[in-house]
Write a structure and sequence with these properties.
2 domains, alpha+beta, elongated, Immunoglobulin-like, 216 residues, four-stranded antiparallel sheet
């Protein structure tokens, strides 16, 4: 009697949906796969291709390879992984509207203010791989909200906090942060300009550690 094939051998690779939209400067691909870790996701860019691969919770391997319609700048392209999806963000080389995501670029494209409204004042509808109409203003707002609410931990959370303080602070706050950080060798970060303006900020090593200055 023959043994039945294992579930791992018969399990089909699940169909993962991906969609895309564009702004004046970027093409954004969203891949709707959940609960992946960023370190497990591999994304490779060239000027005319993008490939994405990741192991799925089911044990199968997800792979997406695209020959894209127009050139991108690989060095200014990136991706991020959130609990609900993978988001691939590709920087356009030319500020033109893409008629499709894939292809040889032969379709007519015009320079366009993609973030503006159409002639009748309605929100423009951009080409995507989906037949469903999208409210891109709503999607952009949701993406920004998701980025703001994305949970950061450890050093990442601390760095984000400092960036927010620096970005939203006054000129005096920024001067205080710069002066205290530079003079203390990165061990002190003060936002009080009155406190640090008239004196040098001394090095303050973490508890239990001793600062030693090495002679050249």
């Amino acid at each position: 009697m023959e043994k039945p094939e294992s579930a791992a051998n018969t399990m089909p690779v699940p169909k993962i949906k991906h969609d895309w939209y564009q702004t004046e400067t970027h093409i954004v691909i969203t891949i709707l796969v959940k609960n992946l870790k960023k370190e497990d996701v591999k994304v490779n860019f060239t000027d005319k291709t993008v490939s994405v691969s990741a192991p799925l919770p089911s044990g199968s391997e997800y792979s997406l390879e695209l020959d894209i319609c127009h050139p991108i700048n690989p060095l200014e392209s990136s991706f991020r992984v959130v609990p609900s999806k993978i988001e691939v963000k590709m920087k356009k080389v030319d500020g033109i509207r893409w008629a499709s995501l894939e292809g040889d670029g032969s379709s007519p494209n015009v320079k366009s203010n993609l973030t503006g409204a159409s002639m009748d004042g309605s929100v423009p509808s951009y080409p995507t791989s989906s037949t469903k109409k999208h409210d891109w203003n709503k999607i952009e707002a949701e993406v920004k909200k998701e980025e703001e609410e994305e949970k950061l931990e450890g050093d990442a959370a601390l760095n984000q906090l400092f960036q927010n303080i620096y970005g939203q602070g006054s000129d005096e706050t920024r001067r205080a942060m710069n002066k205290s950080f530079m003079e203390s060798g990165g061990t002190v970060l003060s936002t009080n300009w009155k406190e640090v303006a008239s004196q040098k900020v001394e090095v303050k090593p973490p508890d239990g550690m001793e600062y030693k200055k090495w002679n050249a």
